[in-house]
From TrEMBL:
Its EC number is 3.6.1.27. The lineage of its organism: Bacteria, Pseudomonadati, Pseudomonadota, Gammaproteobacteria, Enterobacterales. Residues 60-168 form the Phosphatidic acid phosphatase type 2/haloperoxidase domain. It comes from Erwinia typographi. This is undecaprenyl-diphosphate phosphatase. The chain crosses the membrane at residues 21-47, 59-84, 104-122, 129-147, 153-174. The keyword Transmembrane helix applies. Gene3D superfamilies: Phosphatidic acid phosphatase type 2/haloperoxidase. NCBIfam families: PRK11837.1 (NF008813). Keywords: Membrane, Transmembrane, Transmembrane helix. SUPFAM superfamilies: Acid phosphatase/Vanadium-dependent haloperoxidase. It is an enzyme of class 3 (hydrolase).
Amino acid sequence: MEELNRALFLWINATPTSPDWLISLATFFARDLIAIVPLLVVAMWLWGPERQVGSQRKLVIKTGIALAYAMTISWCVGNLFPHARPFVVGLGHQFLPHAPDDSYPSDHGTAIFTFALAFLFWHRRWSGAILISIGLAIAWSRIYLGVHWPMDMIGGLLVGALSCLFAQVAWHFCGRRLLQNISTLYRIVFAFPIRKGWVRN
């Protein structure tokens, strides 16, 4: 498995002869594309058709639970089974500055794939498919730039799937109460913009 991991990495990883524009595009994907997660979460909570805001906020809470599970699992796995990054072991070429910490599973991969799977399972197939595509772009870019192994991204996908399962179970125990409490707090904190009609009640 490790040999396959290394072979796939070397096949994807950029080289000094790779086009500058492709390295720049990969850098944008690797650094900035993950911002879609908080932006979309905030937008779905604050705005949307009145009849859909309730279901959108339910999705936000379930996704938040899944992300909390995912990042906790990722941290635990990374500490229990440390795995050096490609540039740490001197393999391939690195084009993105990164701390030489543990690589498995990828935090970026874990976050975006958890988010994408949450939308695939609980929102719409088309929105999930778009986010999966964004996740694949992020996964490719971080391998291409030499800071992750392919298996780091597969690990993130598996952690995301497991975390969505945990979140679905957790929702039955505390989800509705959590949604109610957060909604109450939101209406207190955002009372002024709600009155002005800038955001949904």
